[in-house]
Structures are given as C-alpha cells and as structure tokens.
Design goal:
alpha+beta; 16 helices; 24 strands; nucleotide-binding
C-alpha cells in the first residue's frame, strides 16, 4: 500500500473539503461534524463546496431502515425532519408483476400478481421456533403468501395503516420502517444541522483540480474563492466524479453484464386530493424492459421508469411511464430523462481523496441502496479518519469493505430479476446463468434444498439480512424442496398456533393503528409525543 506524502497536508486536526452538496455531501458533513467535532470545538475544519448551478434530482427518494440510526445518532428531530423533507413512512416494497406479466381473464379483466418485501423480520416468538421450514412444508395451494404468513406488516401496509402511533416517540415503533422523502429538501435538513455544528459552506463552482507530484490532490480551484486546500478531500460531486474520476482517475467497473438497466424517465405527479390515502411502501411494477417506482410523498408522487436501452427506446419508455401514470391520474406531466452507467469504483479512497455517493458508484434505484451506501461510507470515514499520519492509511481496508458491500448488493438486486418467468427478452436474458454472479448462482443451488440462513452471509459486508433474501425468493415462488426434513420438524402444531398468532396480531394492529395519511398529517401538525407504555391492546406483541 503506497501512502501519500502528508508533510504539506498534516495538521493537528486535518481539514476536510467536501466537494458537492446534496444528500451525500451534507450527510457526510453532518456525520463527521457530529462525531469528530469541527474547528469550533477543536476538531477538523469541515467545508462543503456546493455549486449553485447544479440541480439535485428530487423525484422522490426511498430509504432503508438504517437511515433512522443515522438521523437518531445525529440528534435530528424526527417530526421536524419529516415536515421539512415532505417525508412519509415506508414499510417495504410491493413488487407487482415481477414473476409473470398480468393475466387476462375471459371477461377481459387483467389480474396482477404481487409480493411484498417488508422491513419487519419474520416473527420470532418466545418459543424460539423458526417458522420458515414449516411454511415450506405446507401445501402450496393452501399456504398464505410468505410475507403475510410470517409477519403482520403486510396486513398493516395493505390496509393503508401507519407503522407506529403518534405517542411512540422519535424513531420508535412496533414495526420496522424507513421513509420516502424529497431528496433536495432532505439535503437542506442535513445542511441546516451541519452548519449549526460549525460546518463551513461555500457556494461556488469548481474550475479545476491541482495534483501534487505523487498524484494526490494539492488543491481545488474555484471561480469564486480561488484555490482551496485541505488534508482530506471528499468527492460528493455525483456522476461527474470531479475528484476521484476526472482528477485522480480511479477506474470505474461497469456491471452492465449483470444489471442491464441504464436509463430512467421520471415525473412528479400531484395527488388527486389533499386527503388521499398514502401508500406506506414503494410500488415497484415490472414492465417489458424494466420497472417503475411509485413513491408517495406528502404532497405528490414521485414516479419513474427504469429501463435498459438495449431492449427498448426512450420514446417507448416514456410511453410506458405515461400509460402507468394514466391508470391513476389525469395530471399533465413533464418527464425528465436520465442516463446512468451501473457500476462502481473498486478504489473509492485513493491518496487523500475519498468518494461518497454517486461519485463512488451507482447500481440502480431498486431497493433504495443509494442512501444505504452513503451511510456505510460515512460510518467508515469517521472510523478511519486520519487525524495524523498518511491520509490513505486505511484506504485498503476501506476499499475492500466497500467493494464487498457493492458486490453483495449487486447480487441481491440481481436476485429480483433472475427468478422472473416473464417472456420478454429483457427478463429472459436476466435469467441466463452467465449474467448471474457466481456467488449468487452457488447460493441459489443451495437454496433449492434449504432456505437462506444467516450463516450464508458475512454481516459486515451485507446491507440486507438473510430474511430479505427469503422474502424475495418465496415472493417469486422459488421452490425449496424441504420434504426430506419433514420427519425432523416435530412442532407443526406449535407452528400453526404461531401462524394464527401472527394473523391475530395483524387484526389487532388494524384496530390500534391509524391510517398512514392521518399519522403523517398529525406528525406535521403536532410532532411525536412519547409515552412509556404502549396502548393496552398492543401489549404482548413481541417484536
């Protein structure tokens, strides 16, 4: 491992220059400031250089429950964050028509299939019985859909209910959840918080990057502020990758041979009424050459069609988006077309520069992994922060860890595609073995005879727990032949009691929880009011 000559850049508390704002830049700034302090408190001087001329794509962002850990650790008030970001709750993702296209009944009606990926883990009772094997051994024609059988979150979400009550306080609740929010507004929340901790903000345009003799960054040039120097540079400049890509030239590894999508066409759609039901999950619908996301914010819907240009045209993609929106809304839309290259940099920390967000890599929007990868990177930067010594002392460990995380996410995303039985070329090609990462192929071979286990994964490199793989597999009707295990599974009667208990919890939750729309409105008006004890009818539900 070669280290940067730090004689010119080492300081008592190393200065940090973050190039680019947005969610990546301001989350990095806020998290570093909260955990390391700023020059106001004897910590590093942290500066964000943000261009006033570059817009942030604010079509609606989905997140994963880990975002709550970040926001809680920062000390940001949940209700305030939700109000200012136009946020709503997200309990998972509903996948429509991913296994098969809609089937037409003799009367002409289209029948759509769907499955649900909830954020709640399968129910684990005080009896400590794993229900998954017992579900596998039930008659396929008689058993409930997997997510409905092992957790009551699907019932709650399908009923349009919220994952928590107003009295349950900040970032707490009986069901696991994340958020949908306006990414532009969310960046504003983080910026306000970071500035309050002493982060410096410069509005200006990058005009060049000067390199030292060893290839490290010596300075960045700006039109408004001249040359800016720091000990550590964080590239949050998005797809442009001004520092890590254009200046330092860290190689980019494309993965189009695994994940085919490379385009998106997006639109913002107003709600038809001010009190319309808000779905508390992302709706992901499969189409001929990709899929649409449909995210309900408090004031509008963010909708986009992600597709592969090898299998369709931009014109046809826009027509698919318009057709999808037209099923539920007559609003006039102004679609926006976006191109991207799926892939990542195996060296995201080089010399005295580390990339966070789109500059480090982008896979595709499925499963909201963009924000998860930002969270993972900023956690590691805090852990590895070079207060003294070479700026890249921990670069090898950082790069290996982030590469493994990207690879596991790529496999998880591919899992959604490679199980499909849709007949279109895009979907058929996604099932070809040569497009499936070898590690995922090996796991699929194992899972034909047993369900996914926590021991299949290295937790430090995973963004998704083993049960998320179960939700996708069995939502897509993957067949695990567990018949040989039947004689060893002697607690069928108890399992049936637990399945019934889950159903009863769902019925009770439907009485105790209010609608998602009503909770969002109440949070915006009043905030959360913590109460120590849960309401009487919710007691006894072990999560």
């Amino acid at each position: 491992m070669s280290h940067t000559d730090t004689s010119a850049s080492e300081r008592k508390a190393r200065e940090v220059l973050i190039v680019g704002g947005g969610a990546a830049g301001w989350m990095t700034a806020a998290y570093l400031a909260k955990n390391l302090g700023t020059d106001r408190t004897g910590g590093p001087r942290i500066t964000v250089l943000e261009s006033p001329d570059i817009s942030i794509i604010g079509v609606g962002e989905g997140t994963f429950p880990t975002i709550r850990n970040i926001l809680r650790s920062l000390g940001i008030d949940e209700a305030e964050f939700m109000r200012e970001s136009h946020a709503t709750f997200k309990q998972g993702i509903r996948f429509d028509d991913w296994e098969m296209p809609p089937q037409r009944e003799p009367n002409g009606q289209l029948i759509h299939s769907h499955y649900f990926h909830p954020f709640e883990a399968p129910y684990w009772s005080r009896e400590e019985l794993n229900l998954v094997p017992y579900w596998l051994l039930k008659d396929r024609d008689k058993r409930l859909p997997f997510a409905q059988a092992v957790t009551f979150q699907k019932k709650v979400a399908d009923a349009g209910l919220a994952p928590k009550a107003i009295h349950q306080g900040h970032y707490q609740g009986p069901l696991n959840y994340a958020y949908h929010f306006d990414a532009y507004r969310f960046a504003g929340v983080l910026a306000k918080f970071a500035k309050g901790l002493g982060v410096h903000h410069l509005s200006g345009n990058l005009t060049g990057v000067g390199l030292a003799a060893d290839g490290a960054i010596d300075h960045v040039a700006t039109a408004e502020h001249g040359d800016l120097k720091a000990g550590l540079y964080v590239d949050c400049s998005g797809f442009r990758a001004e520092l890590i890509g254009k200046a330092i030239r860290a190689p980019f590894r494309p993965i189009r041979d695994i994940l085919f999508t490379d385009r998106a066409v997006t639109a913002q759609v107003p709600h038809d009424c001010s009190d319309c039901q808000l779905e508390s999950y992302t709706v992901s619908s499969a189409h001929e050459a990709g899929w649409t996301w449909d995210i309900a914010l408090s004031d509008r819907r963010g909708i986009g069609y992600v597709y592969a240009s090898d299998y369709t045209t931009d014109e046809r993609a826009e027509a698919v988006l318009r057709e999808y929106i037209g099923r539920t809304s007559k609003a006039e839309i102004s679609p926006r077309h976006i191109s991207f290259t799926a892939g990542y940099r195996e060296q995201q920390w080089m010399k005295n520069c580390v990339a966070v967000g789109l500059s480090a890599g982008f896979l595709e929007p499925l499963e909201s992994t963009g924000m998860v990868l930002i969270e993972s990177a900023v956690n590691k930067i805090v852990e590895f922060f070079p207060f003294s010594g070479p700026a890249d002392a921990s670069a090898t460990i950082f790069n290996e860890s982030m590469t493994r995380r990207y690879e596991t996410i790529i496999g998880f995303i591919k899992l959604h595609y490679c199980l499909s039985k849709r007949p279109e070329s895009f979907w058929v090609d996604n099932t070809k073995p040569e497009t499936i990462p070898p590690h995922l192929r090996d796991l699929l071979a194992l899972w034909k005879f047993r369900p996914p286990s926590r021991f299949d994964f290295v937790l430090d490199h995973e963004s998704f727990a083993f049960f998320s793989y179960q939700y996708i597999l069995y939502g897509m009707n993957f067949e695990t032949d567990y018949e040989a295990a039947r004689p060893s599974l002697s607690q069928s009667e108890l399992a049936d009691q637990l399945f019934a208990r889950i159903a009863a919890f769902g019925e009770q939750a439907s009485k105790d929880l209010i609608s998602h729309r009503d909770l969002v409105d109440a949070v915006y008006r009043e905030g959360f009011v913590e109460r120590q004890a849960p309401p009487p009818r919710m007691r006894g539900i072990k999560m």
